[in-house]
Amino acid sequence: MKKAFVLGLFVTLLVSCSRDKEASFSFFVAGHTYGAPSGINPGLHPPFIDMFPYLNDVKEIDLGVLTGDIVRKSTDEAWDTVGQQLKQLNKKVYLCPGNHDIHPREIFESRFGNTYYSFTHKDNLFIVLDGNLDRWNITGDQLSFLVNTLGSADETISNVFIFIHQLVWWDKDNIFSKVNLNWPPYTPDSTNYWSQVEPLLQDYRRPVFLFAGDLGANDQASPLMYYPDRNITYAASGMGNGKNDNFLIVHVKDDKSVDISLAAIGADMNRMGRIEDYQLH
Questions:
Q1: Helix ranges (DSSP H) in the chain
Q2: What is the reported pLDDT for 23?
Q3: Residue 199: pLDDT above 90?
Q4: pLDDT of residue 185
């Protein structure tokens, strides 16, 4: 009986440790990955590619998401180049389309399928949205997709991670006006984010983390931003200006809580400080 008890206890601990290990993982989020608007590289930003050995060495990183403007111009040559470059990573990489990536849209869709989609990873829900379909608005079939995906998510889901290229929450009359966008003239006067999308996410039964990737491309743009707001945590990053190029690493811990780390591109990954240093006030 005593041996059976000890064996049962060992199995219980083993299963518990296995579940904890399964729950803990990381992923990276990188925006504006074609880099400098004035550059001539046909694919990804070369300094970002230089970070691939580091990403490969971090075993906890399971996957990555590129949050738009992956190529400077959407051509078969550019996408072939990106495909070859991403083969240097031993991680699964998901693509979120930016405005540069879908002109023409047919090339992107013929290669990668629908521009908005979802997947789950270790009991976490990942949703990729396309902010180009209706000028930064999430409407029509895409809004229905978002509502249905959230509504039908399994009860075991711990967190929701949403990716979109544009900072669709930006508004000249709210706290996000402190963020300097890459291309202000192309920013719409308003979107349906605050009227239709934000209430859906704010009232959701699990924490929501919303990532964008349209910062840091030039000297006037903010390099990144961070803002926790009750159930929603907003974060945006980018690269291209050559000074404060960066990406994010998201850590989902054993207790399902989430930490976001800032990674500066270059030899000193800590030179930009912590993401909390860029929190809006």
A1: 2-23, 46-49, 52-57, 76-86, 105-112, 140-151, 198-202
A2: 57
A3: yes
A4: 85
The amino acid that residue 121 corresponds to is H
- Is 94's pLDDT higher than 70? yes
Of 181, 164, 184, nearest to 225 (Cα)?
181
Q: Identify which of 238, 258, 121, 136 has the alpha carbon closest to the alpha carbon of residue 187.
A: 136
Q: Classify each residue of 167-180 as buried b or exposed e, where b means 16 or more C-beta atoms within 10 Å of its C-beta.
A: bbbbbeeeebeebe
Q: What is the mean pLDDT of the chain?
A: 92
Tokens of 111: 């290669």
- What string of DSSP letters covers 151-183? HT--TT---EEEE-SS-TT--TTSGGGGS--S-
| Per-residue tokens: 41 | 């590289």
What pLDDT, on the 0 to 100 scale, is given for residue 86? 98
Domains, the chain, ranges and CATH? Answer: 25-278 (3.60.21.10)
